Amino acid sequence: AVARFKTDTPVNMSTAGKVIKCKAAVLWEANKPFSIEEVEVAPPKEHEVRIKVMATGICRSDDHVITGALVMPFPIILGHEAAGIVESVGQGVTSVKPGDKVIPLFVPQCGECKSCLNTKGNLCSKTDLGKSAGLMPDGTTRFTCKGKAIYHFLGTSTFTEYTVVHESAVAKIDSAAPLEKVCLIGCGFSTGYGAALQTAKVEPGSTCAVFGLGGVGLSVVMGCKVAGASRIIAVDINSDKFAKAKELGATDCVNPKDFNKPIHQVLMEMTGGGVDYSFEVIGRMDTMTSALACCQYNYGVSVIVGVPPAAQKISFDPMLLFTGRSWKGSVFGG
Could you tell me what percentage of the chain is helix, strand and coil, using 3-state DSSP and rounding each to the nearest 5? Predict the structure, then answer.
C-alpha cells in the first residue's frame, strides 16, 4: 500500500434491495487517468454482500493494471485493500449482517476447494487472481456506468463508495476497529507479514534479506522481527526508506547503487555465505534472481512476494536450486 483514502459519509441502510448510485474511480483503459464517475451498484444476489467502502489503500497491484503489466478487462473499478460497513446482504448470507464492519478479501475462502481444505495454502480456487475475468462468481457484474457494464477487480473493487462481494470474500472485524488503519490488512500488511511467518516460516536467530521497502516490504521486515530473526537486511535503491525500515526492525540497510558488484555478492559477503531467508517484494525479474542467489546455497529459502509483470519469463542458473536452495511464492501472506 502506498496511500489510503477514507470517507466519513454515513451508511444508508434504507437502500437495501435497491440500485445505489454513487461515485467511483473508473479506469476506462490502460495508461489513462482514472475518471470519477457516477456508477450504479446493483443489489447483492444470493450469498453476496454490498459494502459501504469507508477506507481503501492503493496497492502496487492496482498500478500494474493501470500500466498494463497486469492484464485485466476494461472498463474496470480497481482497488482491493479496504475496510467498510455492510449495507445489505443477499439471500442466504449468514456470516455478516447490515452494520457489521468488514474487510473485503481479494483471496476468498470458499471452504470447499482443495486449497481451502489444505492447511498448507490459502489460494482459494474461486479467486479471480490469474483468471482476470473481472466478474462475480456467477459470471456477471454489479457495476454499470453510462449504460456500460464495469468490470470488478479481484472480486473486491474498492475505489468506489459501494461495492458488492461474495460472502466468501468478506471478513467481519471488531466493531471498534479503526477502518482507516485496518484497511491495510486487506492486502499490504497481511501479504508481507504472512510471507515471513506463514510462507517462509522464518526461524529465531536467522538472517533475512528484504528486497523492496514499500508498504509490503516493510511488513515483511516486521514479520521477520516478530519471528525472531537476528539480522534483517533491508535492500532498496531509495535510501530515504532506510530510517523507517530500521524503525520497524531492519538491522542493516543496503543500497545496491553504492556498490560496483552484484547485490547478491554484497549480501553473501556481509553474511558469510548467504542469508537464511530472502524476500523479493518488487516484482522484477532481476531482483527475483538476486534474492535467490543471496541465499545460503544449501538450505536458503527465497520467497517471491512482488507481482511479476504479465507475459515475462525468468531466466536463471538452475545450479542455484540444485545445491539445495528453495524458491517459493506467496499470495496474501500464504
Answer: 25, 25, 50
Which residues are identified as catalytic?
59, 61, 64, 80, 187
**Range from 36-50, 99-113, 263-277 carrying the lowest mean pLDDT:** 99-113
Question: Distance (Å, rounded) from C-alpha 118 to C-alpha 40?
Answer: 38
User: Please, which contacts does 123-126 make with residues 24 or more away whose CB atoms are closer than 8 Å?
Assistant: 123/331, 123/332, 124/168, 126/166, 126/168
Domain that holds residue 43: 3-186
229 & 247 share domain: yes
Tell me which residue of 288, 296, 287, 289 sits closest to 207, measured CA to CA.
Answer: 296
Read off the pTM: 0.90
Asked, for residue 35, whether it belongs to a domain, the answer is yes
Which residue, 313, 329, 55, 77, is CA-closest to 191? 329
